[in-house]
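Deliverable D5.2: sample structural annotation.
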Amino acid sequence: MAHRIGVLLSGRGSNFEALAESISAGRIPGAEIVLVLSNREGAPGIERAHARDIEARVIPSKGLEREAYDRLVVAALREKGVELVCLAGYMRMISSYFVEQFRGRILNIHPSLLPAFPGLEAQRQALDHGVKFSGCTVHFVDEQLDAGPILLQAVVPVQDGDTPETLAARILVEEHRIYTEAVRIVLEGRFRLQGRRVLLTPSPANPRGRGN
């Protein structure tokens, strides 16, 4: 039986599409996206899900307190038997209630090398600080903003002429790559937690492991 993935998004759904394409291409074997949820009406990612014949729903968050809203989202995920939740441009902090319901089974992708530059406009933060390297991070989600244990990272050099938009575009290529790899690692159980450190175990097809 396929592992059942739920994706939460607020916008265009680029990382959702990358995951869906990786599943279709066999890069994440034995997996299926069974539900895409958005808190925003008109999110392009919902239409992209419909185009792929994946069930997609909007649960508007306006006017609801965080936990009250998250109870609706968790109920929808439970209804579909979701095992792994992937945040893909989901512009809401999730509540402690949500974290407890899926502890160790919620992933997020963030466009910086955490713990540097959490929150919004990470690429602008990187440029404002004058860093020479930025990148992206896949991490487990906990109760704090962009602070859960780090699963994978990829480094992207910052160029002298970069704008937030050009840097974001290069980082996005790496986001798509490492999110696919991270989901596969989690579904195959090829990791263990040691405090805050996520220790990876090699793939059976690649016993020596490989870097990013």
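Annotation notes: Helices lie at 14-24, 44-51, 66-79, 96-101, 122-129, 164-187. The first strand starts at residue 3 and ends at 9.
The annotation will be released with the project's public dataset once the embargo ends.
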